[in-house]
Design a protein that fits this description.
heterodimer, A: alpha+beta, Rossmann fold, five-stranded antiparallel β-sheet, 10 helices, 21 strands, globular, B: about 270 residues, mainly alpha
Amino acid sequence: MVGGDMSRSTGLDAHLVVSRGEAFTLDVSLSIPAGHTVALLGPNGAGKSTVVAAISGLLPLDDGQITLNGRTLDNPADGVLIPAEDRGVGVVFQDYVLFPHLTVVENVEFGLRSRKTPRREARELAIRWLDRIGLDDLADRKPGDLSGGQAQRVALARALITEPDLLLLDEPLAALDATTRVDLRRTLADHLGQFAGPRMLITHDPTEAFLLADEIHVIEDGVITQVGTPDDIRLRPRTPYIADLAGSNLVLGTASSGTVTTGTQQLHIADTQISGPVLAAIHPRAIIIDRHQPDGSPRNTWEATVIRIEHYGDRVRLQTGDPLPLTAEITPDALSDLQIVEGSVVWISIKATEISVQKD
Amino acid sequence: MTKQATSRDRRKRRPPVVLVVLAALGLSVFVVPLLGLLARTPWRDLPTVLTSDVVLDALRISVIASLGATAISAILGVPLAWVLARVEFRGRSIVRGLVVLPLVLPPVVGGAALLFALGRRGLIGEPLNQMTGLVLPFSTWGVVIAATFVAMPFLVITVEGGLRNLDPRYEGAAATLGAGRWTVLWRVTLPMIGSSLAAGLALTWARALGEFGATITFAGNLQGRTQTLPLAVFVAMESDRGAAVALSLIMVVISLTVLIVLRHRWWGAI
């Protein structure tokens, strides 16, 4: 079988090199098969927006190439540069960038009208899309009247109606408040699942990347520093930076009256009101490690075995085993004081207030 | 105690007297001349004066010249503004300086320059005359050209400002949706700078309507052909004060009407 060629011809294959003066050079390789979501995770200024501009055709490459479904979109060496309007790359921009002077339905049908689809046909399709995202009653409103969540769905419909070969989402949840974000992450996951082509998610939010992506590429200062599944990134971060960015422990569980139950373990949390399925986040630095049972205020304490120790400069990350596998972070001095080695049994304690809980 | 505090708070809210006095003086600079005009208006003879040939001719030429200059400015000035805002090229600041020059240049000098360039013996005027027989100076076209020369900078700088303030991501988003350059321009760029465009057109039209110096130098002062309202006022001041006042009144009414009709778009963009 020609498996290698097959995967190459039905997805995105890109090597992006863009120089911005002396100070910054983006040099990133990416490949996304159809039906997969890859997240590009990194801080502001890492080059994420340059990646969006290069792939969508708003910024030409200085070197490298972009191939989508076997078609070359940009290749400076061969002098190939397909303009943005002919690329078939659907983009949901940061802050959505809906056209403020057009109504919601005019925004959605914009791509079809630009491709000379007859007026009536474009309108019918746009209405069908609005129906699908549950906004058909807002068709004649202006984007300024929409909530953040509604605007996001309109932006998604506007991009998808043109049946793009690649879906590019640039910080799709950043413009929303925390509560809406959780709701919309679900909706977004559904929509992503319905899009058959390669999906690319640009984000600075590790939670977003962990929950939406099949694979995460971490970008720092214009280069990819780690590629892996969400679990790889979370449990085995390769640089101190990734450890900081993505190292939070995420625990799925069920909350009721001040506790979260996950597997056999119960966690006490500060919020006594929340109930139902939740996502609890615990920062590795919030986990206290002892050799003996602590008797202080922490509500959550248990014994666990250290199964892995990793050093990152001035920090050490410990991975602990059952009943609730977690990553904790301590200093090298603490590690030697406590004489911890792989296989040591330690006491873990976490203050209830250090566990941040949100509805899943 | 409480009462004192209240009265002090009240005094605090009142604007400073000096500022109010100066502001009133500033306003009087605009209002007093208008009052003078109204005081001297021959109300009884007004209908006759306003329907005289001189006035109707001048009105017609002024309408043609101001609207013609606005139309030409829109057709040529918007592309010029677009190039200045979006294309990076060497000497862009020099080009921008040339565009704004008519704003500071005395209009008479502009008229003289037009005469040297487009006059019967001018740099371009002479070959143009030989090839087509066209004579621009002292024609209605000359009035339009003179008005365009002094008024188009208003359109270019206002529209360029609008384009610079427009977030380029809107045009980028349109492109990713399959819109070519023309579609982006017509469906996104121009509608989104609509208020700047409207303000630019209004300013351009107002400047063209009031144009005097360049017109009289380049196009002369021929009734029914090149005599605009301002030129007619100037002539009437020497011969017929009543007509001069009536003509002035027409200009005040036209200008005020346009300002009031366009006020929202205008203040929105400047």
